[in-house]
Design brief:
10 strands; Rossmann fold; 9 helices; alpha/beta; six-stranded mixed beta sheet; 241 residues; four-stranded antiparallel beta sheet
């Protein structure tokens, strides 16, 4: 079952074009989304979630067209776009009081589980948290309403190695429960530990999507490199020549 289908997604800015991006994500799969800064990762993810309004293209979640069924779809999807940077002076418990009211499936026990796992203190405000802890707060908000699909923009950014390892374990745990995850990252070694699939974007165009293992094996056989980091460096240098 295709949980997410992105077809010919296009967004034009004066100095940038997201050019007909298409890919799909299967139920219970983890897809890594990679590319250089400015390649179009955040624009793509925000367009999928309708936080940025694309000029053309279609996004379907669970077989439902996103824009026509946005309220229903967003009950089943968790989105985290990095660290929480809103209501900086509000205590976490007050932010949660507002957030839980939006979700019919909010699970207080799940919320408490991730609050403990990530060592978050409800009495603190986002302003009092480090960048890494604000990322954990953002993830906690996304994970506490039984989302079937997670769309995460740089979720491991700012986390120390131990916290990153804990988060990858959470991803694999959720995958085993049938949750699908699409996340962008610059830390390619994280993807090699947990991702089933890969989507690689460069200058607004998707240049590869599919099985991560097949991508690595094909690249190694062609002498490009055996790791995602090697492969990215090769392709980006080629585009500069």
């Amino acid at each position: 079952m295709q949980v997410l289908e992105v077809s010919n997604l296009t967004k034009r800015y004066p100095a940038f074009l997201l050019d007909s991006v298409s890919f799909s994500l299967e139920k219970g799969h983890i897809m890594g989304f990679i590319g250089r800064n400015g390649a179009g990762k955040t624009t793509t993810l925000k367009s999928i979630f309708n936080l940025v309004h694309p000029d053309s293209g279609e996004v379907r979640c669970f077989g439902l067209e996103m824009r026509e069924n946005e309220r229903e779809v967003k009950q089943r999807v968790g989105f985290a776009g990095g660290a929480v940077d809103y209501y900086k002076h509000k205590k976490i418990r007050d932010i949660i009081d507002v957030t839980r009211s939006f979700y019919a499936n909010w699970d207080e026990s799940e919320y408490r589980h991730y609050l403990s796992l990530f060592s978050l203190d409800e009495s603190k405000t986002p302003l009092q948290l480090s960048e890494g802890m604000r990322v954990k707060l953002s993830l906690t908000l996304s994970l506490s309403h039984h989302a079937e699909l997670l769309i995460l923009d740089e979720p491991t950014s700012g986390l120390d190695p131990v916290s990153r390892a804990e988060l990858l374990d959470v991803f694999l745990y959720l995958k085993n429960r049938g949750v699908s995850i699409l996340f962008s990252t610059h830390i390619t070694t994280d993807l090699e530990k947990c991702a089933d699939d890969i989507a690689y974007i460069a200058k607004g165009r998707l240049i590869h999507t599919g099985s991560l293992r097949a991508f690595l094996e094909e690249s190694a056989a062609n002498g490009i490199g055996a790791s995602l980091e090697d492969i990215m460096v090769y392709h980006e240098k080629e585009r500069l020549l």
